[in-house]
Amino acid sequence: MINTKKIIIVDDHKIVRDGIRAMLLCNKSFSVVGDLASGKELFQQLNSLTPDIVILDIGMPEMNGVEITGKLNREYPAVKVLILSANASEDWIVSAIKAGAVGFLPKECSSGELIKALRHISRGENYYGESIASIIYRSYVNILRDKESPKRTEELTERESDVLKAFSEGLSFKEIADKLCISPRTVESHKINILNKLELKNTIEMVKYAIKNGIIDL
Amino acid sequence: MINTKKIIIVDDHKIVRDGIRAMLLCNKSFSVVGDLASGKELFQQLNSLTPDIVILDIGMPEMNGVEITGKLNREYPAVKVLILSANASEDWIVSAIKAGAVGFLPKECSSGELIKALRHISRGENYYGESIASIIYRSYVNILRDKESPKRTEELTERESDVLKAFSEGLSFKEIADKLCISPRTVESHKINILNKLELKNTIEMVKYAIKNGIIDL
DNA sequence: GATGAAGTAGGTGAAATCCCGTATTTGGTT
DNA sequence: AACCAAATACGGGATTTCACCTACTTCATC
């Protein structure tokens, strides 16, 4: 094989990294040039490792997969991103695609499918996995039907993120106010905005959203 | 090697299962006779696969690793259990050991450590991993100092579990009352008991507890 | 048959949150 | 310069939840 593609794996669990590494060991088209535990490490080593493809766990503490994908796409547009996700929710798929991922697989996928995805990606194609594809299709149909329904992925402002994070840590209005040095009423305003934007109905759904989207760790 | 140990891997992510499989492929002391996605499948196939060791992910929907361990220990005491956990909290370690796990590793462990653990376990020894060992030591010291502090792992009653589950779904007192056909005040009583038992300070911590312990899925 | 745990239910007052608003300042865009 | 979105802040009343109790019933266990 003339053109071996260089791959970096980013996942906070070493066992997953080793696992993927082991899967690709027998395959001559791909060579794993690094496996890292966080986005921070990735950006530190990106220039020296010069990967073609980055395999990215979406659910990581600190910087989540979507954020990393966005930054990669802005600063290193030649690097392709394949996202791995524990639970393939529509939200995450949409965010990942928006951020520039060219592949998306559930962690339930087989090693065969992983290699298939990598092949497609190295040919410059997209690959989204069968189970993902059906979710994308459904989402697409929804968009066509409702004209404009992709409100779900509306972005939170910086401040709203702070508030969301604080709520998810179990703080009360007053505690959040103190922490962020604003009035409790302002915290309330932010919260209402968050709930409206994300179409959630209460604090608990908000916390679950935050966990799902890697905004806080458990 | 005369005595090859038979291993089953249980994890809800195929990629992790395949990864561990791949890691053990080169090792003649251990052969993976099955990899399964849930406790249910495990108990269906246990009699035909007759494993020596079960590698168990602690964080799974439906039946979590601790429950599976307990059931295994009661019904198949010859089968050794090695727990893998994403986040190695004291609570989980304590629960796992109580339930009868003879090994406990964080998912951040290396493949080398995994094999080391399996070697110890097949010799009939316990193995808890370096990072785990320090947590165990600290917990042990606490128990010695406080005479009796392991209140943390106190069990919830059936009804309390129902209430916890309902709260975690984002229902209010009134909604839970309707759902369980009891008075809102009773729901309140249950909730207070839950918070006290688990030493949590509010609903949000409760929800996070429920997610962490696999009582609800995200 | 006493004891205790689990499940049920309620009282009361305080605290927190929700839900409807309005208003000012700041920073960026056109 | 005009405009808009974001962030900040507040009001008032309704509703919900919290905290700390008491109390009854059932059921198993000793």
TrEMBL record, chains A, B:
SUPFAM superfamilies, sorted: C-terminal effector domain of the bipartite response regulators (SSF46894), CheY-like (SSF52172)
Name under which the protein is recorded: DNA-binding response regulator, NarL/FixJ family, contains REC and HTH domains
Signal peptide range: none
A Gene Ontology BP annotation from the UniProt entry: regulation of DNA-templated transcription
Residues the record lists as 4-aspartylphosphate modifications: 57
Domain Response regulatory: from-to ranges: 6-122
CDD domains registered for this protein in UniProt: LuxR_C_like (cd06170), REC_NarL-like (cd17535)
Source species of the chain: Alkalitalea saponilacus
GO MF terms, alphabetically ordered: DNA binding
Gene3D superfamilies: 3.40.50.2300
Domain HTH luxR-type: residue ranges: 149-214
Keywords: DNA-binding, Phosphoprotein, Transcription, Transcription regulation
InterPro entries the record matches: CheY-like_superfamily, NreC/VraR/RcsB-like_REC, Sig_transdc_resp-reg_C-effctor, Sig_transdc_resp-reg_receiver, Tscrpt_reg_LuxR_C, WalR-like
